[in-house]
Amino acid sequence: MSSLRPFHLAIPVYDLSSTRDFYLNILGAKEGRSASTWVDFNLFGHQVVAHLVVGNKDNTGGNNITYSEVDGDKVPVPHFGVVLTVHEWDELANRIRENDWDFIIEPKFRFEGTSGEQSIMFLKDPSGNALEFKAFKNLDMLFAT
Question: Is 46 helix (H, G, I), strand (E, B) or coil?
Answer without folding.
Answer: strand
